[in-house]
Amino acid sequence: METKTSGRRKRQDSADGEEEADLRLKRTAETKAATVERLMRGLGLQDGTSLELRLANLSYLAFLLSKGISGELKKHIMSLLITCVGSHPGQASVYATFVGLLNVGDFDFVSECLSFMLQKAYESMHTRDWSKCRGVVHFLVDLYNCQVIPSSSLLNLLAVFLKECEALRDPDDVVVAAPQTRRDWLAYCVLSAMPLIGKDLEGEAAFEKLMVSLQIYIKKRCAMHTTMLSVWRDLKQRDYLELLWQQVDGLRQEHWAEPEHQLIPRLYMAFDETLSHGQMHYIRDFQLAPHEQGCRYPPPRVCFRIFSYDSVGEIHHLPSPVRIERHLLEAQIQDMLHSFHKERRICADSLLGYAASKPQLPVYHCIVEVILGEMLQLPTAQWININYGALLVQLCKGQPDKVPQVVVQAMDILFNRLGSMSVACFDRLVNWVSHHISNFGFICQWSKWAQSLPSPIDPSASNLQPKVVFLRELIKKCLRLSYQQRIAEMVPDTLAGFLPPPTLPHFKFVDEKLPGAILSKSLLEAMRSKQSCPEMISEIISATTGIGPLLKINVFTQNCLHLGSKSFSHTFAILSKYHSVFKDLAAGDPEKQLAILNGIFDVWVASDQYKFVVSEKLVKMEIIDPNSVVNWIFDPMMRQELTKMYVWELLHSTVRHQKRVQHAIEVVDVDDPSASDPIVKGILLSIVQRFVKTLSGAPVADEGTEEHYWFQWVLGRLQETLFIYADDCKT
């Protein structure tokens, strides 16, 4: 009996021991995977980590994996590899070095990695993840530098990317009816990689053939977009691909001399002896994902420059715009922006860390220039304005001794160039400057800017010169972010006239002699009573005789706004309470809806913000139709308002709201074609027609006159509208 019990205990102890051993192995594997992930993700961060520490991390990572890689860990590493390369394309070199070190001891795994990355390059084109695909291309290029793939394989791969560009040379050899934006992107992928391999491959026939193909493509492609996409009318900005070719070609003429200050990250050079022991891998035949109808490629761009000798004088060690060093600096900054734009603190830390690693270069100037270039990019910025503004504020707080001075310089340059700035960039600039200075006590170059205004300035007059309009709108925006007294204390006396009057409602029916005053008095008494309800108000309006329906609507609107004038919350509450009355009075009738909008204008004549916010609210409550807003904005009585920002904020807000509504209908009634009625396209067509009619009716005016400025402002707003809704307007 004791023998049987002892046997059971031994078996139980053995089972427990095996289970404990399995658990330990599992924990070890999980710990190893977590360590690998932490180190791999850390390799791509530009957070000021020293070169020595990055090299040490690379060495430790390679050592950690040198004793064998399990099946699950292999999958995890490959998944991390494509994530990191896709998220940090500018750091592809460090990940290629990591794979090169693995290749020394595990040829088969690296072969799997190579096949995996090539497959991901194809998939990323299919899924339109252009940044990831470019990162993979640069990763493969650096695998050549890490002695993982031979030059023949690499050059064949790059030739595949340029094949469609070469088709332009022979019209009978067009392989695919792809747009120029696709060919531009393919050319950019190859051209941007040339500085990485030019020194080693100079003179090789296949490499020189690639350079000739690029040169011919750049020369023959159409670059008519540069004028349209330039931020300034009198300053033509260079096409990004043409400028990159000039920068790369300049490097070639210098026999691919290595740019100074380690602008090309080459961590693999520290492991050159180790990497030489790895075996070479040959890339199998690679094909690009074919062009698909409707596929959207990265749009054409122009290069944004504000820091030049003409604008601020000489900036010590700032590379010339035609030098490859300028491109390398900007490319790293753009990669960090795109990687971390959703996390402003991480993004700011990465940018400041990068600047700290290049103390001999004016990296802060480049950072500010790139961010502002992205923000003011035409036709539209990639992200919302606050994204760029919040990042610049974070940079100023992170490096208060250096970045704020650069931002102030940039503001001055942009202010001085307002005379030729595209109107499509104007609102973005006003919104950014107002947000930025609101974070720093509204301290700004107020006095300096005031001195540069044309003299004399009559603030009460309708002066439409760009600098005057900018300051007027900037002060209005600052008032939205603060209060009247605070802004009045900050602006100099010379700009005091630009301050709008205090935000007070104008209720004209206090004059009992005015038509509608009797109805107004009756409505006020009823609306203030505790028994007030929509039905009671409707009965009073219906029972009133002697005045027309449009005046009744105007009176009711003004009464509502007068009673709710204490705050936006009070206004919204009273509009919600009498929502049914508004619907009964004006539903489906454009003329009656116009009477509501005129009522808003009458009460809040001195406040652009209230006119915008209340009108927008009525559109969202479906009291006002979008077409009624369009008709109101382009009504002759609103002619002078067309140079003010709030009008266009309202117009674009209205169109966006209608697009959301239409999208919701399409989602609900996906099988009903009638549900996708092109209401938005009808509104946009109406807007464009009204623009044309308004501009056609404007008198011919001499340059520099108010009429000339008015025409330029409205024409610029037409261009802005076409930019914003380009995809909708195409059809």
Summarize this, please?
The protein has 35 helices and no strands. The chain is mainly α and 731 residues long.
Name some characteristics of this structure.
mainly alpha, single chain, 731 residues, Serine Threonine Protein Phosphatase 5, Tetratricopeptide repeat, 35 helices, elongated
- Measured as a percent range, the helix fraction is 55-70%
At the third CATH level, what is the topology name of the largest domain? Serine Threonine Protein Phosphatase 5, Tetratricopeptide repeat
**CATH architecture label of the largest domain:** Alpha Horseshoe
Rg calc:
32 Å
What fraction of the residues are assigned to beta strands by DSSP?
A: under 5%
Structural class: mainly alpha
Oligomer: single chain
Which CATH class of the largest domain is shown?
Mainly Alpha
